[in-house]
Amino acid sequence: LDKLKAERERGITIDIALWKFETTKYYVTVIDAPGHRDFIKNMITGTSQADCAVLIVAAGVGEFEAGISEQGQTREHALLAYTLGVKQLIIGVNKMDSTTPPFSQPRFEEISKEVGTYIKKVGYNPKAVAFVPISGWNGDNMLEVSSNTAWFKGWNIERKEGNASGKTLFEALDSILPPKRPTDKPLRLPLQDVYKIGGIGTVPVGRVETGIIKPGVIVKFSPCNITTEVKSVEMHHESLSEALPGDNVGFNVKNVSVKELKRGYVAGDSKNDPPMSAASFNAQVIILNHPGEIHAGYSPVLDCHTAHIACKFASLLEKVDRRTGKKLEDNPKMVKSGDAAIVQLIPSKPMTVETFTEYPPLGR
């Protein structure tokens, strides 16, 4: 399914591809987050918008070991997904056709056990996670039960909202619990792209995170402070009377040129707690892997919703326990890998963020 030529040549997924399919219960939009360290920024943007993560682990000899090693990406991706608020997880143990012997039950069980131990450390409950032996290349256990894994009795997940079981990846996707969508909150819609469509005009595209957007609403875009009327809203090429949280939509706006709007801007309802830009804000930051010490003045690029902006660590306010959030130290001199801290951040250009408690998708 890797679409782009460059991806085909390198054999990896580069940008966040959005493609859709239907299960018996859901429309599923797949955000194909890359599995190669150079592309981690795309992965962060994609992951923070997901309801469930499907972590694909390669079962091939040596390949699994590389991914799960201290420097490996399997660990980093699981930790990132959990840290970014993706609380549901499915594990696809892929390339089962290239184990020794092919479709080896002991290899599947060894990998499931080791990944289970690791994701538990990260914060997931392995009992609530489906582990599915698959071959993406040949299609084993993707949509239909494979005769190559006759030994596989199926996956079982236990959770307080109800248990589920099945044999395929498709069934595992069907067992995802849809999150409660915040329709009652004011509108927040971070822009992913802005298109100019002949005969229609300017069409910003993005996912409704909170609230409702519909024709006739006077939207305010932040941080540019442009206000305009929504003429129409559409999804899956169909016109909508309203769009709700979770919907990926395009909406046509009056009298605004494509040049005035950018990815990372946020649309809200001008009459109901519209979004604002922040001159500075405090954030809890976890240092995942960084070669040295981080001091005040450090200026990394921050990915929040669809915004991608350099922000300066103006001051390190406190060091905290990354699991509980309890304060460990006031005004630390520096932080390093493995630390969590509350930091005052100053964006290098106007940036729209919200508190995590009010608008989680715009606060992580």
Mean pLDDT: 87
CATH class category name of the largest domain: Alpha Beta
CATH topology of the largest domain: Rossmann fold
Give the DSSP E fraction (strand runs of 2 or more residues).
25-35%
What is the CATH-assigned architecture of the largest domain? 3-Layer(aba) Sandwich
Number of DSSP helical runs: 6
Please estimate the helix content: 10-25%
Order of helices and strands: HEEHEHHEHEEEHEEEEEEEEEEEE
Instruction: Supply the number of structural domains.
Output: 3
What would you give as the CATH superfamily of the largest domain? P-loop containing nucleotide triphosphate hydrolases
- Give the strand tally: 19
Task: Describe what this molecule looks like in 3D.
The protein is of the alpha+beta class and 364 residues long. It folds into three domains: 5-174, 3-Layer(aba) Sandwich (Rossmann fold); 189-269, Elongation Factor Tu (Ef-tu), domain 3 (Beta Barrel), CATH 2.40.30; 281-362, Elongation Factor Tu (Ef-tu), domain 3 (Beta Barrel). Helix content is 15%, strand content 32%. It has six helices and 19 strands. Strand 10 (218-222) and strand 11 (226-235) form a beta hairpin. The chain is globular and about 65 Å long. The two termini are 29 Å apart.
